[in-house]
Every structure is written in structure tokens, then in C-alpha cells.
Amino acid sequence: MLGNFQQSQLRIELEASQNTIRDSLLNTDQLRKWMWPQNLSADLPEKLSAGLVFTSKLGLIEIEHLVKVADDNCLQLILSKGIDGYHEWCWSDGWIQSRLEGVSLLPLDLGQTYSLMRLRQHISMQQKSQDPLNQ
After folding, report:
1. Tell me, what CATH number does 45's domain have?
2. What are the angstrom distances between the C-alpha of 21 and each of 25, 79, 107, 135?
3. pLDDT tens digit sequence for 11-55
4. Is residue 46 situated within a structural domain?
5. Strands 61-70, 95-104: parallel, antiparallel or unpaired by DSSP?
6. Whether the Cβ atoms of residue 107 and residue 20 lie closer than 8 Å to each other
7. I want to staple 67 with a disulfide (CB 3.0 to 4.6 A). Which of 13, 52, 58, 62 is the partner?
């Protein structure tokens, strides 16, 4: 694999429950919404589960994901092709943490920061649309 070994760990606070965060990460319809500009495999099941293999594309770069763990507060992915490495998401009420390590030509820390900001925006918009005071 060409590229540099990179690692990044970020944790942010969110005004969201553990279940809301979990659904945003494991339900593929929601995942597609906030992962833009990455495109996910068309044939994904409704929910990510251990053992599932899928791809995402960022322009011409394809990344293969193997789901190692997908439970109530953790998602672990083994990455290959465009990134050879590991991505772990952990969360609970009010926070989420992302740990990413791998060899890639892509700037992983920049992509990770962008993904977390998109996730935060997605959850915020989702909660506003479910709030009866905003309707």
C-alpha cells in the first residue's frame, strides 16, 4: 500500500442519546445521508452487522469495510484498498469518539473531522425534525 501511516482520535459532545447515535451509525439509510460525499455499496442491508463487507467510494478511491463489531455502543471496521487500517466508533449518551489508523495517501485526520461534523449536523437536523415544538 502506498501512503503514510496515520492515526487520529477525536471525541465530540452531541446532544443525543446513545440510541440516536447508534441508529445514525448502524442504519444504512441514515449512514448514507451523512457520509456524503462517500457513496456506499448499493446492496447494503438495512443495518450493519458483524461480518458484513461493503465498499465506499470517494471519487475514484474505493475503500472496503469489514464490520468486526456492530453493537449498542461500538462499531469496529477493518479497512482495505484506499485505506489499509482500522476505524472504531464508540459512543454513549452525549458523546461519540472515533479512532482511525491506517496507511493511505488520503489525509485521514481531515476526513475524520469532516465525517464527525457531518454526523453531528445530521443528528441535530434529525432531532429538530422530531421535536414537536419545532413543527
Report:
1. 3.30.530.20
2. 6, 22, 25, 22
3. 999 999 999 999 999 999 999 999 988 899 999 999 999 999 999
4. yes
5. unpaired
6. no
7. 52
